[in-house]
Amino acid sequence: MPRKSIGEKAMTDAERQARYRAARAVGAPVIRTRRPADHRSRARRWHDAVAELMALQAQYAAWLDALPANLQDSTVADALQRICDLDLDELQAIEPPRGFGRDNSLSYNNVACSLTHVNFRMNCYTEIRLRPTKPAA
Q: Is 113 contained in some domain?
């Protein structure tokens, strides 16, 4: 999405370049910010979202309990009650798929043994490839 224009009409390339050079000539440091990337897995994001929903539901329940008597029959109380009545235990019980063949229930020992075997074979191959060769006599 393009940036909004600063003036009434769009700047020409020469005007944009002049503005850029004038900003750099002042000598002020250029500060660029980026939004940090979310490196959590989908499963972790799912569990975090459900935990956030449960925390919000608890806060809404506390708000509902603290409502004064004159607001007990209001639309606010009705909305809070509907939020508190949601059953989030079903969401919490869902275990999202991990994907790419990682869904099967292998024990930790089987996975560790197979990884050790692969590492052993790779190390042997690396040692064979990296052995110094004897110079021809």
A: no
Q: What is the dihedral of CA 51, 52, 57, 58, to 10 degrees?
A: 70
3-state helix, strand, coil in the chain (%, to 5): 60, 0, 40
Q: Which region holds residue 99: left if phi is over 0, alpha if psi is between -120 and 50, else beta?
A: left
Residue 53 structural domain = 40-97
Query: Does the residue 49 lie in any domain?
Result: yes
Tell me if 86 sits within 8 A of 61, measured CB to CB. Answer: no
For the entire predicted model, the pTM comes to 0.51
Number of domains in the chain: 1
Domain assignment present for 51? yes
What is the share, in percent, of the chain residues with pLDDT greater than 90? Answer: 43
d(CA 50, CA 53): 5
